[in-house]
Amino acid sequence: MIDFQHVLDTIHQTAQKTDDRGKIADYIPELAKVDKNKFGIHLVNMNQENFSAGDSNERFSIQSISKVFTLTMALGLIGEKLWTRVDVEPSGDPFNHLSLLEFEKGIPRNPFINPGAIVVADVLISHLKNPKDEFLAFVRNIADDETIDYDSTVAASEKQTGFHNYAAANLLKSFKNLENDVETVLDFYFHQCSLTMSCAQLANTFYLYINNGRCRRKNTHLTSGQVKRINALMLTCGFYDEAGEFAFEVGLPGKSGVGGGIVALHPNKFCVATWSPGLNEKGNSKLGMLALEKLTTETELSIF
C-alpha cells in the first residue's frame, strides 16, 4: 500500500529547496500580489482519505481550472449539442491565441482555451436564470462546500486588463457563435475564473471525475461517457501548448490555471491538486509540474 503522506512530505521538502519557482502572472494586477514562495499539495483517494503538505488549505484564484466546472454544467444542460459550437481538438497554441479561431470560422478548438470557455459561458447564460448564482451553487454542490466564493476584486482586475478576451468574444460574435451580449458573457467568464479555492477544496471537488460522475454528496452529475470525454479533454487540452509535455512527464489528465493551481487525476484511484504561483514560460505552475511528475514517478501511478 502506498504511503501517500510520506510521498507528499518528500515533494514538499523538495519544493522548499527549489530556487527557480517561475514567474507570477503579473498581467492580472491582483495575481501579481501573491507570494511566489507559496506551495501546497493535497491528494484524496477513492475512499475519500485526504493527504496534504504545505499551504494546501490556503485559497487562491483557480482561473482556468474553472473551465472544467463550466464544461460539466453545460454538458448537463445541453449534452452533445455543445460539440456543434466548440471542438475537441488540441490547439497547440497558448490559451489566449486567436489566429486559429478566425481560420476555423469561429469554432474554438476545444473548451479549455479561452475562446472555447467563452462559448461555454455563453451556453450557461442562455440556459440559466441567474447564471453567476447558479454556477456558484453548482460548484459548492459538487465540492460539498458552501464556503467557496468568487473574488470580486480579481474579477474586476481581469475585466480591466482582459483585452484578449474582449477580442475573442467579439470575434466569436462576428461568426455568430455567441448568442448573448459580449459584456454579459465576459462578466460571467471573469467571475468564474475568479473563484478562490484551496488545494484541498479542488481535490475534493474533482472527486467527481475519478468517481464516474458522482460527487462527494453521492449525486450523479455526469454519465460515464461524459466523464470519459472530460477526462480525455483534460489529458489532450488541459495544459494548452504544454499538454503533450504534461502527458509525457506526469501521465495523468489534468487542468492548470494561471493562478498557479494544477489539478490532476487517476480515474478510480486518486485526485491531486497543487498550488505554486510561479509559472513557467507556457503559463503553467513551474513547481506544480515538477511536483506531479515526482508524484507519479514515486508511486508508479499514471494512466500509462
The largest sheet is: 5 strands, antiparallel
The overall pLDDT average reads: 95
Task: Give the neighbour order of strands across the main sheet.
Answer: 2-1-7-6-5
CATH superfamily of the largest domain: DD-peptidase/beta-lactamase superfamily
Could you walk me through the main structural features you see in this protein, from its secondary elements to its overall organization?
It catalyses: L-glutamine + H2O = L-glutamate + NH4(+). The protein is an alpha+beta fold. The chain folds into 2 domains: 4-63 and 195-299, DD-peptidase/beta-lactamase superfamily (Beta-lactamase), CATH 3.40.710.10; 67-193, Beta-lactamase. It is built from 13 helices and 7 strands. The chain is globular, with a radius of gyration of 18 Å.
Features:
single chain; 304 residues; alpha+beta; Beta-lactamase; 5-stranded antiparallel beta sheet; two-stranded antiparallel ribbon; Glutaminase; hydrolase; Beta-lactam/transpept-like; acetylation
Condensed summary:
Helix 1 packs antiparallel against helix 13 and helix 4 crosses helix 7 (163-174).
Secondary structure elements and pairings:
Blueprint: H1 4-16, E1 40-45, E2 50-54, E3 60-61, H2 66-78, H3 99-103, H4 114-127, H5 131-143, H6 152-161, H7 163-174, H8 182-193, E4 196-197, H9 199-205, H10 207-210, H11 224-237, H12 243-249, E5 254-256, E6 261-266, E7 270-275, H13 286-299
Antiparallel strand pairs: 1-2, 1-7, 3-4, 5-6, 6-7
InterPro entries: Beta-lactam/transpept-like (IPR012338), Glutaminase (IPR015868)
Subunit structure: Homotetramer.
EC number: 3.5.1.2
